[in-house]
Amino acid sequence: MVESMARGVFEDGKHVVSELRIEAKTSSDYPPPPKPLLIATPSEEGEYPVLVFLHGYLFFNNFYSQLLRHVASHGFIVLAPQLYQVAGPDSSNEIKSVAATTDWLSDGLPCVLPTQVRPNLHKLALAGHSRGGKVAFALALGHANTSLKFSALIGIDPVDGMDKGKQTPPPVLTYMPHSFDLNMAVLVVGSGLGELKKNPLFPPCAPKGVNHEDFFNECCAPAWYFVAKDYGHVDMLDDETKGLRGRTSYCLCKNGKERKPMRRFVGGVVVAFMKAYLEGDFGDLTTLKEEPEVAPVVLRNIDFLV
Q1: Which residue of 51, 170, 172, 221 shows the fewest CB atoms closer than 10 Å?
Q2: Is the pLDDT of residue 23 over 80?
Q3: Rounded to two decimals, what is the model's pTM?
Q4: Residue 221 and residue 77: Cα distance in Å, rounded?
Q5: Domain boundaries, the chain
Q6: Is 122 in the active site?
């Protein structure tokens, strides 16, 4: 019975999901968002917690459509801004854009959701993948101010730089254990293959010294840490990512055999974590800690500070 409860978060939830695409343009009907948005939301009437999700470096938010829908199917509104089309090494503008998007939520989000769906902005989480994970941590650490308070932070294979294992501006890691003063619960998910090269021509996509291990080492309690042993840095993306950027996701990073198990794991552990820290239900998260074999991937590392 306990095992089946935990396995449930790795499967689609009970909610029918609607996918919305909101453009960043002037509208007389509602205040426009600062950036284009991809939103996955339950369709049924109700009030739901909200997750802001940040894409990885040079990726599109729609590369994560299956992951966003998985999380939304468990009763969460998930919105992913498209932070840029082209970007250099400095992520300062992205941090400001996420802050502006967060400030937009109070007035703008209720206007674009189905009329029967209500966001609960008192239960607000922030997540990011790769460079988006760095941006999420930077915002939580106060690199920009927001009018709303986040209650939970999630780094999905976060990376604080891609230049030979060095940080890119603005730096986030301090290399001092437990130095992050976040005042919120944190989940860090890592990929076991992310620190390995795909081939001699390209560096690892999540190199040691700036990756998930370093982010978790600087967290304070409460913090949770899971590393999927045989999966890579982009294995939580959709099964098929199209276009030139989509094709690069297959050839630049060392990958697992298929994306679905890693995506199911990431979606499930995110759901379990948010159920725990936004809704007070620790059942699935505790089961995953005590019985890691319920996960659809083999876990190399499990650690927690509570």
Answers
A1: 221
A2: yes
A3: 0.96
A4: 26
A5: 2-305
A6: no
